Amino acid sequence: MKIAAFNVNSIGARLPRILEWFDAARPDVAVLQEIKCVNEKFPELEFGDRGYNIAVNGQKSYNGVALLSKFPLEDVLKTLPGDETDDQARYVEALICPPGARPVRVSGLYAPNGNPAPGPKFDYKLAWMRRLNARARTLLALEEALVICGDFNVIPQAEDAANPGAWTQDALFLPETRAAWRELLNLGLTDALRQMRPHDRLFTFWDYQAGAWERDNGIRIDHMLLSPQAADRLKDAGVDRAERGKNKPSDHVPVWVELSA
DNA sequence: ATGGTAGAAGGTCTA
């Protein structure tokens, strides 16, 4: 089963590019971040025609996530528990049920950016990561194949940035952020990309500004985390880096894992 | 040198 995560930076502005990628990559499951549209504006027909079941948690202008699956969905959840007052659309989760094969639970997320730090946005980022940690604990206790994936807005290590020195004051790389990331991994999750490709440059984001792509001034902030039961089934993982060089690209590229059936 | 670009909304914010 191929599972992908892609921060598309507006599904409306990017639909032809995104469909082209779906037709080439053919993921069984994909979670999309920053769709930047309300549920009613999501292009359900285009994905329905390609055989996907859809769960959308949309929002006007900002944020917005969606989960697409060739297999039936159960247990759909569209809020990250732990804060009734949080109205930002950043989370979608479902149990993927392939007929005649083992199910996989997929959690798709768009974590807060957190800049500027310090400040209320950084506080929100750290609180959101604590809620994600609590959700991960709950899901890990189920002892299922589980994939928690998407745009975490975390640069885990210096080797995950072309120029780590430029990020030392940034919310994506501050010690508190990286500590929250480590606490998540130390629950027993596997960073599938780093595990599968320990020595590769695995950048997933290049800013639109200052020729970041042309200079390969990238960072790794989109991740695929696997429960032990999913890590046992890990066959391959990758980053579709070439998407960033195409016309009118997102500033992020897709990341994916392949799990054995 | 405190810029640069992109997107959605709509006369500004977020990333």
Give the arrangement of secondary structure elements.
Blueprint: E1 2-7, H1 11-25, E2 29-33, H2 44-49, E3 53-57, E4 65-69, E5 73-77, E6 91-96, E7 104-110, H3 120-140, E8 146-151, H4 175-185, E9 190-191, H5 192-196, E10 205-206, E11 218-219, E12 222-226, H6 228-231, E13 234-239, E14 255-259
Parallel strand pairs: 1-2, 7-8
Antiparallel strand pairs: 1-14, 2-4, 3-4, 5-6, 6-7, 8-12, 9-12, 10-11, 13-14
The structure holds one DNA strand of 15 nucleotides.
* Structure summary, number of beta strands: 14
Overall morphology: globular
Helix/strand/pairing category: alpha+beta
Give the name of the CATH architecture.
Answer: 4-Layer Sandwich
Helix count, DSSP H or I runs of 4 or more residues: 6
What is the CATH top level name? Answer: Alpha Beta
Mean pLDDT: 97
Give the total of domains.
Answer: 1
CATH topology (level 3) name: Deoxyribonuclease I, Chain A
**Low-pLDDT sequence parts:** none
Strand content: 25-35%
Name the helicity range. 10-25%
* Sheet with most strands: 6 strands, mixed
Q: How would you write the strand order of the largest sheet?
A: 3-4-2-1-14-13
Give the CA-CA distance, first to last residue: 6 Å
**Annotated CATH homologous superfamily:** Endonuclease/exonuclease/phosphatase
Instruction: Work out the radius of gyration.
Output: 17 Å
Query: What is the H/E string?
Result: EHEHEEEEEHEHEHEEEHEE
